[in-house]
Amino acid sequence: MSTLTFRAATLADIPALITLVTSAYRGDASRAGWTTEADMLDGARIDATGLQADIERPRSTVLLAERDGQLLACAHVADDHGKGYFGMFSVDPAQQGGGIGKQVMDAAEAHAAREWGVAVMQMTVIDIRDELIAFYERRGYQRTGIKKPFPYGDERFGIPKRDDLRFEVLEKPLAAHA
Q1: pTM confidence score
Q2: What is the distance between the terminal CA atoms of the chain, rounded to a whole angstrom?
């Protein structure tokens, strides 16, 4: 099996990114992997307008992981007021559990430290996602105890199927990368 290659997304990648991110989190296709939010949320996980903004924003990169030209995973990394931001982390459900996610996280952390000199990476996770939080904790992230409300009524984040959703901020110190 060939190695993963990483590159920054362009506007031409938006349709493939929407397909990938949706398959990892929403609908029946997402149930093939363990990152599904299908029991918590309906609706879109990402849209073209939001992706375009992330791609075009300064100090922001949508990082793609490909093997032999096939998109397998992605993550959005950015400089968020001097701290790294890690989000939109998606791995093709059929490829989950094979180490691709860990490679993407390593590449995203290295990118943020190298490109923007950030010393800390943060992310927000729906706080009832115990298995996902445990995955991040195994990768060095820690729960901060900081909770943020879920944006009920804003369908850009999905259509909630339950009323107890909120985000928790996780954080990890980054090693310096040359």
Answers
A1: 0.87
A2: 28
